[in-house]
Amino acid sequence: MKAVLLGAGAFAREVLDALRLTGDVNVAGLTDRDDRTHGTLVDGVPVLGGDDILDRLTASGVTHGIVAVGGVGDNGPRQRLYERLVQASLAPCLVTHPRSAVASSVQRGAGSLVMAGAVINPDTVLHENALVNYNAGIGHDCIIGAHASIGPAATLAGNVTVEPRAFVGIGSTVLQGVTIGEGAIVGAGAVVIKDVLARTVVAGVPAKVIRFLDD
Predict the structure, then answer these.
(1) How many Å apart are CA 36 and CA 50, to the nearest integer?
(2) What is the tens place of the pLDDT at every residue in 99-108?
């Protein structure tokens, strides 16, 4: 398949590496909202322009798109890019790094990404455009909502629910049965022992509310 990556930053390089190792995707190029990158190369792949060119790429045989922007707290940009590629009639492409371990019973939504070293245990569900970053561990029967992201080396015990657009930060731990609410942010290294409300930022050991995103 022939695909375009939406995003041309550091995370795009990680996605490119995963795709090169699997060898089943031909990357035609990347897009970036920063016009200063247009015409440059990212690991040998050209930045073709902004997201406005997506509608024209199908004429050149591009059939798939991949959101190559890593969530850093706010997963809104990941959602907007995903919706843009769908609007351009590009099929969201699954990315699975060959050095990840994904149980056979895991259900994958369109456009979900599993990066190097990630381990995802049985009967977990990744909804559309969910991101499980490198070395993250996801326990059995978890639910990762649409456009949510699990940071590098984060650990989720069994039966954890991460609702849409939530962000679980690098090196954090979420105990069994906990729910991370929609759009919530779990800070780096936090240990979450109870449910986190939607649009709430928590941090610390144990994790406590430090602010509300709607304030």
Answers:
(1) 10
(2) 999 999 999 9
* Shared domain check, 100 and 79: no
Domain shared by 15 and 64, yes or no = yes
140 belongs to the catalytic site: yes
pLDDT band per the 50, 70, 90 thresholds, residue 72: confident
Rounded to whole angstroms, how far apart are CA atoms 162 and 165? 8
SS3 101: strand
Q: Which of 64, 127, 140, 147 is catalytic?
A: 140
Same domain membership, residue 154 and residue 78: no
The domain of 61 spans 2-93
Last residue of a domain, one of 64, 93, 122: 93
Counts of helices then strands in the chain (DSSP H, E): 3, 25
pLDDT digits (tens, 9 = 90+) for 109-137: 999 999 999 999 999 999 999 999 999 99
Q: What total of structural domains would you count in the chain? A: 2
210 — pLDDT class (breaks 50, 70, 90) = very high
Which among 62, 93, 124 is the end of a domain? 93
Domain co-membership, 11 together with 45:
yes
CA distances from 12 to 4, 30, 115, 172 (A): 11, 8, 12, 23
pTM over 0.85: yes
41-42 and 45-49 beta bridge pairing: antiparallel
